[in-house]
Structures are given as structure tokens and as C-alpha cells.
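Notebook B, p. 112. Complex prediction, attempt 2.
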Amino acid sequence: MKQTELLRLQLAILMLQHGERAILESIASLRGQDTGDLEAILVDIDKIRHARTKKPPAAKTPSFSIESVLRTHPEKADVIRSIQTRYEDKAFLTELKDVRRFLDRHGQPTNTLKTRSEAFAKVVRVLIELPIPELEVILSNAPSNEFSGLGVISDQILGRK
Amino acid sequence: MAVTVSLINMKGGVGKTTLAAQLAHAADRQNIRTLVVDLDPQSNLSQAILSPEKYVKLLKDKKPTVSAIFESYLPPSNSSDSPKPVDIKDVIIKKAGYWADTTLDLIPSRLELSHTLKNPTSKERRLAKALSKISDQYDLILLDCAPTESILTEAAYHASRYALVPVKPEFMATIGLPLLARSINEFKYENNDHSLDICGIVFNHSSAYSEGPEGEKSIKEVKVEAKKNGWNIYNTHVRYSASYPKAAREGTPIGSTSYVRWEVTNEFSTFFDEFLKSIGLKTIP
């Protein structure tokens, strides 16, 4: 254990045993200071720490425009618009976890994703890089939210349709 | 030229298939050109790599599987009205891995592989011969074996340079280890021009029950046996996590499985590095 960690542990125990006020008064007495002076120093330290850790206001992200992305590859515009409709109808990447998986497979970070609708901007940026045959496969695939791994294998083994 | 490694243990339920799938994904992530071969008629590795949905599509499309290599022909199909000689390239599913830019290939299995088990005569070298035609296209070939001694195990030995042995630290599970050692020794005696070594034993805690005192006792016993026989034991254990069965269901690498704990991913990654070193492979940047 590091020296600072040990000190913090010992202080925590003392604070539990005697209370914060008693500890402050004892330190003030040892240093020959008034308790009020010591409290003022602690308040100043707290203010400095707070100023350091305060996050700057988040910059507003510009609203996403699918048209600006599609302009870069106009030949894919139609198929991607159709995929967008499927996405909005929850027929493609039906849940947020499916979106995460799709982006992860394409090497995109997913830890900041909060909602499925917000995530579409990222999805489009991946889609625009895919070849048209792959986009067409995405468009033709049935939604799989009712998917059961055991069910499909069981049906196949037992020859059920 | 690829290094070929069989995941093998004469005991079932020790986590061979889960480990094989995760090693394959980890190798793929690190740009190691990898081929995985499913040598179990239960086909769980094929399902874990492809996902059940894609695996069923493969069966419905009547795509050839590893069984065709052992039987040496492709049966008549929609594209051919008569049997055809089999080419291993017909059997490989390219880009079967998780990531969009994957280079992981798979030779899948199907239940019909059990016909090979029933009619095994003179088929034990066919897999090795087939793999020899494409081994220069890969860095790593992983073979996932069924847990009983059979033509399939022998075929895996013939094709392999190393055997990786997952051991579940429980008394009954550790008994598979001396059985495997005897089997490998017999193979080496009959094939003394063939180098086949155990690259290591990995403690694979495939259930939470193996992490108590019974597990510790079994680990000690295996270590004593390993020392007597000069077998390497990997320092990193693959500890039990519910994320492993979930990864198999989702067809994902452990690190991409939903809600996986960081330490689980980190531990597997450490084991993977140890495994690569033990077979003389390095990560490819």
C-alpha cells in the first residue's frame, strides 16, 4: 500500500472514531491555528479541485444529415434510403444491442451509444462504405428479433419446416 | 506455413469447443490467418463461429462439410448430377469470422460425420493430406476434436504438430489427461517420423463449481502429473464466466459479448498470448 493510501485509511478510521469536527480541531490545535482558519483553507482546496474537475460545457454536435453522407456515394443512395426505412420500422438492427454488434463488427466504438435512433448516424457512415451487393443482402434479410438458436437447429435436425 | 494445433481431451465437457472458437476469434483479431476445423459430429464449433442461423442455412444449401474430406467425394447435388471428387477448397467457408474484415475460415461439420465413425477404415490420413494442400495459406490451423478416441482423433493427430489440452479442474475431468497421454504416446510409437507434442495444458474452469477447494486439489494433482511427464501448464487459467456460453450463443468473440466483464476479456487475452508463444507464433501487427 502506498504512503498516501495508508494515510487516507488512517484518517478515515480516525474520522469514524472521533468525527470530522474533532479531527479538525485537533489538527488546528497542533498547528497553533484557529479551527475557522483551517476550515477556510479546506474550503479553498475544495474550490480549486472542483474548478479542475468541472467539465467544460459539451459542444453541440451538428445535427446529422443523411443527404450529406449520401452525396459522397450517390450510386448507393437508393439502397441506403431503403435500409433507413427498414431501420425506422425496426426491421433492420431491431434493438440497440443489434446496432452495437453491427458497429462493433465493423470496428466502430460503441460505448457512447445511448439510443437506437441516435445511433443511425454511425450506422449510415458504415453502410456508405459497404459494396452495393452487401447492402442488397442487408435489405433482403428478414428481421431476426424472434430468433431462437435452438429452434432453428432443432427444426433442421428433425426435418421440420 | 501454418502451425496446426488440435484441441483435445478424452473427457467431454471441458470447454474444448468454446476455447477453440475464442482462440480462433482472438487470432483473427490479431491478423493471424486462421482456419478452424470442426471435427465433432455435434458441430457445436460450426454453430458457435457461424451463429445457428447461418449454420442452418449451410445445411439447407447442402454445402459440403468436413465429412466430404473423409469420404473423398461430393455427393450429387443441384449443381452436379453425379458424385464429384472433393477439393478441400470446396469445403472451406471463407470469411466466417465475426468482424467485417475477417480472414477467419472454417471447415464446418455436420451430424453425418458420424458415418465416418461407423466406417473408419483407412480414412485417418485423409484430413492431413487435404490440409497439406492449403496449409501455406494460413498461419494457424485449429482442429476441434470430439472427446472420444476414434478415427477423428487419429485424423487430428496425423494433421497436428501440437495438442492443446483443456482440463477442467475436477477429479473425474482430470482422468482424461492420462488417457490422452497414453493415446498420444501410442500414436508417436506407431508414427515415429511424426512430431506431435502437447504445447500445454490449460485449466479451463468451465463451471463455477471448479473454483472451490476441490478445484484446487485437482489443479495440484494435474501439476504433479505434468511435472512427471514434462508437460507445459499455462500460467493463465481461463476462469468461469457466464459470458462464455453467451458468446457461443451470440457467435461473438468474448470481448464483444454483451455485458462481459473487463477482467474476463483481459484474462483470455493473456492466455492467448501465452498460447501463441508456446507454439512459436507471434502476433502480427
